Amino acid sequence: MSFKVIHYINQFYAGIGGEEKADYTPEIREGVVGPGMAFKGAFKGEAEIVATVICGDSYFASNMDKAAADILEMMRKYQPDAFIAGPAFNAGRYGTACGAMCAAVSKEFGIPVISGMYPENPGVEMYKKSAWIIETPDSAVGMRKAVPAMAKLALKLMKGEAIGKPETEGYIERGIRKNMFYEKLAAERCVDMFVSKLKGETFETEYKMPVFDRVDPQPAVKDMAHATIALVTSGGICPKGNPDHIEASSASKFGEYDITGVTDLTGETYCTAHGGYDATYADQDADRVLPVDVLRDLEREGVIGKLHNKFYATVGNGTSVANAKKFGAEIVNRLVNDGVTAVILTST
Questions:
Q1: Which end of the chain is less crowded, N or C, counting CB atoms within 10 A of the terminal residue's CB?
Q2: Helix (H, G, I), strand (E, B), or coil: what is residue 55?
Q3: Which residues pair with 89 in a beta bridge?
């Protein structure tokens, strides 16, 4: 008898539509849908996808608790042996949804949960301890590579077989430490690695250190009284109604908004699109996140030359590093072209 698997995909891979259908509410269909066919082949009869869960990326991001609860209830009657989500590659909202559902399924049903993501997908950092995440390329071009690895790991987990190291099995390090026994003491192993490094030989560290981007600070502004200061925020501040439809999580865009003559971001005219914090106080007074009122005071007092007539906003909640870098580069180009001297960057 083969294992029973439930597969989670978004509206795009279900063939329902793209961004225009991202608010698609959760549903469950019997059998295989979309990339499930590839998993069916990779399982080679040892497991079958008994049902496929479909949910729009934006809907899940904006209704995480409700969406997860509804999906868990839909799954209950199938009594699955494992849950597979994605692969999501570098799609931020999709990766976050896959990770969140894996975490919810693991907690509710206690079964193996597997996904596939590009290492920079925000879903990795958020859920790598809750799910087994196979490392994938950054786009669906890597589907043929991702599916066999996910299927292989899923079968091993369902069979209760021992799981090897990340580099052997292809999953992203989970940050879970395990006790190991060695013939040599730690000091001896350390010296051996150090000698290998000095000789230019290969060696494997036992504890990889994180690598962070380093940004060199720019020189201080010498003449603030004649400087043009711009405001940029990842706190999601935008005109009332969110006209650019910036996503509440895993943003795929940023907005540019004219504040010529605006001295106060009132609750009647501005709000936040952010879904990662309690929006109550930001919706009451968006100046709490984007201090236009204070900058106007400094402008009148002559402390700064002027406040730039545009501000830029996106949502940092779950947004991928790749998208954040892309947004930053484009915003910087616009600010430089407009002659801006310095930027105040606010978050939540």
A1: N
A2: strand
A3: 117
Residue 314: CA count within 13 A, CB half-sphere = 19
- Residue linked to tokens 């109604």: 241
How many C-alpha atoms does 61 have within 13 Å on its Cβ side?
30
pLDDT tens for residues 254-294? 999 999 999 999 999 999 999 878 889 999 999 999 999 99
DSSP H/E element including 166: helix 166-169
- The answer to whether the peptide bond before residue 87 is cis (omega within 30 degrees of 0) is yes
CB count within 10 Å of CB 67 equals: 22
Of the candidates 50, 61, 47, 82, the residue with the CA atom closest to the CA atom of residue 10: 61
| Distance between CA atoms of residues 316 and 270, nearest Å | 18
Distance CA 226, CA 340 (A): 11
Compute how many other C-beta atoms are within 10 angstroms of the C-beta atom of residue 276: 18
- CA-nearest of 71, 45, 41, 46 to 56 is 71
Integer Cα distance of 340 and 310 in angstroms: 10
Query: Are the C-beta atoms of residues 60 and 93 closer than 8 Å to each other?
Result: yes
Q: Enter the DSSP assignment of 119.
A: T
pTM: 0.71
Residue range 6-42, pLDDT digits in tens: 999 999 999 999 888 989 999 999 999 999 999 999 9
Upper half-sphere CA count for residue 299 (Cβ side, 13 Å): 16
